[in-house]
Amino acid sequence: MGRAGLLLRLELTSNPEILSVVRSAVTCLASNMGFPEADVRALTRAVDEALANVIRHAYANRPGQPIELLCRRVTERAAERRGPALEILMMDRGISVIRKKFCGRELDDVRPGGLGMHFIQNGVDVVQYSRHLRKNRLRLVKFLPVQEPEKANGKGEW
Amino acid sequence: MVKISTRRLDKAAILDVSGDIDLAHSTELRRVVLVEFRENRTPKVILNLVAVNYIDSSGVASLVEGLKASRDVGSRMMLVGLSPIVYEVLELSKLLKIFEIYDNEALALEA
Questions:
Q1: Residues 9-68 of B with CB under 8 A from A
Q2: Which of A37, A80, B22, B66 is the most exposed place for a label (fewest CB within 10 A)?
Q3: Band of the pLDDT at A133, cuts 50, 70, 90?
């Protein structure tokens, strides 16, 4: 894994108590990069839900299992869009997550559970899941807002 | 962390919830709410969420489960003091319309 654009690297364990720490870190990072408040909240929610999914599904609530989280500034090209973005990679050694779990449920179906994936998809622009060498890898990308020229040297120049 | 304290007024229980309702703590909220309906058969349970800083999907699921339990026993569950962050999550979940939501505790008690 290259270190270009690396902003933050966290080695975590699958304990739910760590979620609030990661939320704080992601909120702080995204704010400093210049994301608007609503985007910061949405991104933080997406990362929180993705990490909770790893704890609940990949590790079946077993505490103490390794999770790695990397945040990088990248130039992303997705669909018809290209530009600077925050990339978040989450790696774990849990069981393979069935692709079906990466589809949010119908929101008209009022029942407990199934909202997490909806929050993830809502919060970022790109969601990619892969599995290689017994590792799950989730890649989340959120584009930085397009900056007006006079603000180009202010926040967001990370 | 999350803190839940209970006050009782006539036939209502008011649960003052504070902190983050996330995967680490939503089970506690779920437990307390379900006890009110299934064991205490409290006719009206008001969740005061004014001091809730964050709620995730497991927290929302706990609220939905509480609502279903209230309907099972013919009680009512109400939400008051929704912060913009909690409101945003319920709106995103398209669940605002299924909950009884009031601006404050007095309005919920009168309803």
A1: 20, 22-24, 54, 56-58, 60-62, 64-65, 68
A2: A80
A3: confident
- How far apart (Å, rounded) are the C-alpha atoms in residues B77 and A119? 25
Structure tokens that stand for B29 in this block: 């909220």
- Per-residue pLDDT averaged across A115-141, rounded? 93
Chain A residues with CB under 8 Å of B68 CB are: 112
Tell how strand A135-143 and strand A81-92 pair up.
antiparallel
Calculate the alpha carbon distances from B15 to A98, B27, B50 in Å: 38, 15, 11
> Which chain A residues are within 8 Å of B58, Cβ to Cβ?
52, 116
Against a cut of 0.90, is the pTM above it?
no
Laid out side by side, the sheet with A66-78 consists of A6-13, A66-78, A81-92, A135-143, A126-132
ipTM of the complex, rounded to two decimals: 0.90
Q: How far is A102 from chain B (nearest CA, A)?
A: 15
Which residue of B24, B60, B62 is in closest CB contact with A19?
B24
Higher local confidence (pLDDT), A25 or A4: A25
